[in-house]
Specification:
Keywords: Oxidoreductase, Pyridoxal phosphate. It is an enzyme of class 1 (oxidoreductase). It catalyses: N(6)-[(R)-lipoyl]-L-lysyl-[glycine-cleavage complex H protein] + glycine + H(+) = N(6)-[(R)-S(8)-aminomethyldihydrolipoyl]-L-lysyl-[glycine-cleavage complex H protein] + CO2. It holds the Pfam family Aminotran_5. It is globular and about 95 Å long. It has helices at 37-40, 76-87, 110-116, 134-151, 163-180, 197-204, 222-231, 254-263, 296-299, 362-398, 429-438, 466-484, 489-492, 505-510; strands at residues 155-157, 187-191, 208-212, 236-242, 267-271, 291-293, 314-316, 328-332, 335-339, 415-417, 445-446, 456-458. A hairpin with a 2-residue loop joins strand 8 and strand 9. It is 32% helix and 9% strand. The chain has 2 domains: 113-371, Aspartate Aminotransferase, domain 2 (3-Layer(aba) Sandwich), CATH 3.40.640; 378-497, Aspartate Aminotransferase, domain 1, CATH 3.90.1150.10. The strands form 3 sheets. Strands 1-7-6-5-4-2-3 form a 7-stranded mixed sheet, with helices on both faces. Strands 10-12-11 form a 3-stranded antiparallel sheet, with helices on one face. It has a two-stranded antiparallel sheet with strand order 8-9. It is α/β, with parallel strands linked by helices. It contains 14 helices and 12 strands.
């Protein structure tokens, strides 16, 4: 008998259907439909063995649980599959370009993660005796040194947990400085292009917020600023300004702005969310900045998103350095010392209080210092240069087809477009962003900053190659041309290809369903035959 050499046919037949079939499971190949854990877990079993506890007396004072916890139990493979399948539905920097503006979603080198997990860093506890963590204190001090070196400042408060927390810290230091000088100014100036947390922070501390307008080129109206200072002479506490600003532009009058603020016995707070554009190129302290938070989770690569983890150290000028909050590190005879109480302060140290229970985010400190040391000063400078280069590469690639609200002037690390190019197409800014999801991209930052109608803020970061940028630009151009041709079906209900279609985001935000309840059982009563 001879061997069969025909084999089995594997190519699709000529008349094979081109539609996507409906499947029994709801899965589409490896694109799997994953139910909530409550829907398929069992409440009477668990995938692990728990020992029966010995007899004990509860110390909860009658507050112990009376009912079962009702957590679903899964076998170990089920638990693993559940979270792996969910992870496939996440967009991540490891899967594609993240064009979110003002967010700096850069690559997170795995070296940083390895360092953060070293024994002595990854396993320490905030309540450990200080004598057991000298290495951690030394690392914090080393990181603080380089933050002050890069910014040209005299002190840094390390404990704030993120950007807005850092803003609060900086403004509290400013308020403490005014109080120590016997002043009580009531007004904080905030440009129109500021991050929304800036006026919120000032208002939280009891200040009245006065808005400063922008010029036609997107930068602060310096003449309007001087007029406002004169109008409120003696009552201005400071200014909260973002530089580079949220329009992706460098404030060219920043030194003059600082001089005008200081001449009014006020302080200059700079929002450091966009520090990624100027590291190694310009030092905020040299520009007249008195306080600025630095998002370690943005500028120095630590993981960003999902609510954390964040870290927002605040650098302080010589005028504000005495008011740095507890805890802080002081150089002692035997190395760095962690100062945790007012009783340990020395002459000239006037901490305004304490921002948080412990010193800060240790894991973020390790990752940030690892990033700095692996790059070196020249590498950090190049990262800033490449961030600006990439943003301008996107700007030039799209400026002939998407609308630039402030003309074709060079931008910093992010480029701002508006929705003028969508006028009369029947496609909204939201439609356009949702269609990007079908193309495999997370949408850019939308409708922000508020000074531009239909804003689309794109920040590619220094991490992206030219090939990635070329594909992104080509995709955006294709979407624009599709909208200009009236192909509204591509946009009106997008995304079509994501695990979930377009959601009613307004209702979801205003009427969130925070607790899962089992659905009513289906009516399976048989229908009588006629």
């Amino acid at each position: 008998m001879s061997m069969n050499t025909q084999g089995r046919p594997s190519a699709p037949t000529e008349n094979a259907p081109s539609f996507t079939p409906k499947t029994f499971t709801g899965n589409r190949g490896l694109d799997m439909e994953e139910a909530l854990i409550f829907e398929f877990g069992r409440y009477d079993v668990t995938g692990i063995d728990l020992d029966v506890p010995d007899d004990f007396v509860s110390e909860l004072g009658g507050h112990d649980r009376k009912d079962t916890l009702e957590l679903p139990g899964l076998a170990e493979p089920e638990a693993m599959r559940h979270y792996v399948r969910l992870s496939r539905n996440n967009y991540a920097i490891d899967s594609g370009l993240y064009p979110l503006g003002s967010c700096t979603m850069k690559h997170n080198p795995r070296l940083n993660e390895k360092m953060a997990r070293l024994p002595g860093f990854g396993d320490i506890h905030p309540l450990q005796p200080l004598s057991t963590v000298p290495g951690a204190v030394e690392l914090i001090d080393e990181l603080a040194h380089w933050l002050m070196t890069m910014t040209g400042t005299f002190a840094v408060a390390m404990s704030p947990k993120a950007g807005a927390h850092g803003e609060l810290c900086g403004m509290m230091a400013i308020k403490a400085a005014h109080t120590a000088a016997g002043r009580d100014p009531k007004i904080v100036l905030v440009p129109e292009s500021a991050h929304g947390t800036n006026p919120a922070t000032a208002a939280l501390l009891g200040y009245k917020v006065v808005s400063i307008g922008a010029k036609d080129d997107g930068t602060v109206d310096f003449d309007g600023l001087k007029a406002t200072i004169a109008q409120h002479e003696g009552n201005v506490a400071g200014i909260m300004l973002t530089n580079p600003n949220t329009c992706g532009l460098f404030e060219r009058d920043i030194i003059e702005i600082a001089e005008a603020i200081h001449a009014a016995d006020a302080y200059f707070y700079c929002d450091g969310a966009n520090f990624n554009a100027i590291v190694g190129k310009a030092r905020p302290g040299d520009l007249g900045v008195d306080a600025m938070h630095i998002n370690l989770h943005k500028t120095f690569s630590t993981p960003h998103g999902g609510g954390g983890p964040g870290s927002g150290p605040v650098i302080l000028s010589d005028r504000l350095a005495p008011f740095a909050p507890l805890p802080f590190i002081r150089k002692g005879e035997n190395g760095p010392e962690l100062i945790e109480t007012n009783a340990d302060t020395q002459d000239g140290e006037q901490p305004f209080g304490r921002m948080t229970a412990f010193h800060g985010q240790m894991g973020m400190y390790v990752r940030a210092l690892s990033y700095m040391m692996s790059h070196g000063s020249d590498g950090l400078r190049q990262a800033s240069e490449d961030a600006v280069l990439n943003a301008n590469y996107v700007r030039v690639g799209l400026q002939g087809i998407m609308s630039l609200p402030f003309g074709v002037r060079p931008c910093m690390h992010e480029v701002l477009f508006d929705d003028t190019f969508l006028k009369d197409t029947g496609v909204t800014t939201l439609d356009f962003a949702k269609a990007m999801i079908d193309e495999g991209y997370h949408p850019m930052t939308m409708y922000f900053p508020l000074v531009v109608h239909g804003a689309m803020l794109i920040e590619p970061t220094e991490s992206e190659s030219r090939a990635e940028l070329d594909l992104f630009v080509a995709t955006m151009r294709d979407l624009v041309m599709s909208a200009s041709k009236g192909e509204t079906d591509r946009f009106s209900a997008a995304p079509y290809l994501s695990p979930r279609r377009r959601l009613d985001e307004t209702s979801a935000a205003r009427k969130p369903i925070l607790k899962w309840t089992a659905p009513e059982p289906a009516d399976v009563t048989p229908v009588a035959a006629e």
